[in-house]
């Protein structure tokens, strides 16, 4: 395998730079084809820097035109410039101004890193190392500087000129050009730099902070799509108010701008005062966005806004600390969504995502700790482990310290580190110090990869009225970490008596128990509860209080008891899932057939009671109806996985449940028919979610009647949520009518790229032999936008990640299609290529035939020629 330079960066090698830059003045002349960047960097030698120490700046694909110090051009021998660095051999040992001019070509930038053009609009993406593609710089997060940016462009092509901070000047030139000046008074690292230039529409609003400061808010987008930004604006204002209420954090500039662009490598970016978004996370109107899309818009708008404090005001010392800002900010956006909507529903959804993405990552060749200690390519560490597991770790802190204790820790963190680049150790220390607790053991959550497995057994002794609960923890080896330390695991729990009510105890020993939390911090703990009058059923890990895999000795009967009686909604949902998983694992063993009708009956009865009962809101009921995914089952099986048997087993269970609950499902479906005009109010979205879950479950029954019901639902839908729900149900059931409706859908929405993504994604998910050829044909169509990340991910990403049977075809053709795609896209956009390739992280878990096919596809990719560092890194680790 030939790769771009092999190099590994280690956390232990972190050292501050000998010089730092505290002020940047830039003049950017934007023009089609070429843009010229003129930079004045105010450089200061750090104390202790020896005379003659060179100043080394990062660059990437830059063409240097001139370089000067304090106005005097440098002689050729005084510096060395390559496209990837600029070295000043003997800079003065005092404050000086380094002046450079470089030329860049945004039009040719298909990597979408640095300064590039999307749909006519010039925009930037600098995290993590994109600023070096704009100008030579100390492109690392521990260099904080204030920025002043003057942008010059043709007024017709780019009437809108935006950068970070506050607008401080603007004007026209005679030649049809104009300029704008932006000053960002908050020192920031270069990854938060942003500029946008283009002909854009916009909506405007304002927010008054709690201390009375007026902030002008704006969202910019393609002309004609302004109305699609209104929901995002509403979400922004709610986010600003929430951060004041919950954390006492106010916004700190005169303006806050958001720009929606259509070519973007991931979700969105928290640039100071100028967030740039993938337009799919801004646009939301009922005709084109589903309720899930609305939730995502709200969540990501909040996430990027919350970064203003957790990321921008306090940033990361180095990229190993990425989860310092990401895990914490995901935790904050989760809390925001929970406060704005249903907390139990949000928790279940987040845990589903954690299990289907993060647990899989953590159990395979790409496993890494939330804070890794080495990397070859930092772009490959924007992972679900850093984000979602990072958030779980913060959540455990909040669980252990309580809301007030957590807030004290946050306050101290800001008091100590505002305006600084911090580390995970700084973060933990703030919580430990603010609450006078020792958190030394807790840091292992940041340092160790792998999902801890907790095994529980219990026994009850009637004579002595004692109940014993034994907990054991174990974390499997992960790459580079053969041995693991015991973690501090907070177990939120309750004991439930025979009549379904909570039981208390007179005394407990064997581990520290604080209220309803067991602090489980050893390999094994044996707890003894005294004064227990009857055999209790334990409810463990309520609210999923720690990101672990739980095995208990509870019978299906006990689980169904929990499903009926647990006061914790998460565990009521979990109990039903656990029973379903048990049935599914047995069915897979039997080659895809259900083996225990009695247990299926019992599960169906419990599901029916939940559906008709009044504990839990409508969206909660909808979640109980969704059986564990094929990926969940594959994960529970672990090795020698046959995706076809899993698919068959799951289909059989869904069909059986559907048949048993048919009348109830139909009754609820019909009762929720009259939805009135579209609204995003909680009651309305929850009603749609339950009604559509019933429809999906009916379709899983596979009857003609259900198919026509779904077709009618599709045809009469007045919003995208209902239309997509019916179409997705039919597609996943591979119903005969699905292809015709997919065709109809495509014709209806040809002009709307974001809706086309839904079509691409569903087309790739059809569980049918013919899907691979259809996907290939779509990709080969000359009109397919081959450089747009959203389109590529919707089609090929969905095929690789959401069609387990067709991706893992036993003849290997699904695997080969994906590796060939990766090799091709890698030439233009390494980040998209590397991300798609991660679908292979499960390859060693397949049964031998598929495993061999996957390995051979990966090996031919390795031999196919020169790969980017991004893709080579993922491939190397996947095959290791
Ligand atoms: Zn983030």
Summarize it.
The protein is α+β, with helices and mostly antiparallel strands and 880 residues long. The protein binds zinc ion.
Describe the structure.
This protein has 880 residues and is of the alpha+beta class. 41% of the residues lie in helices and 22% in strands. The chain contains 25 helices and 37 strands. An eight-stranded mixed sheet has the order 7-6-10-4-3-13-16-15, with no helix packed on it. A five-stranded mixed sheet has the order 18-19-20-22-21, covered by helices on one side. A hairpin with a 2-residue loop joins strand 6 and strand 7. It is globular. The relative contact order is 0.07. Mean pLDDT is 97; it is low at 1-5. The protein binds zinc ion. Zinc ion binds at residues 303, 307, 326, 329. Belongs to the peptidase M1 family. Pfam families: DUF3458 (PF11940), DUF3458_C (PF17432), Peptidase_M1 (PF01433), Peptidase_M1_N (PF17900). Its EC number is 3.4.11.2. Its cofactor is Zn(2+). This is Aminopeptidase N.
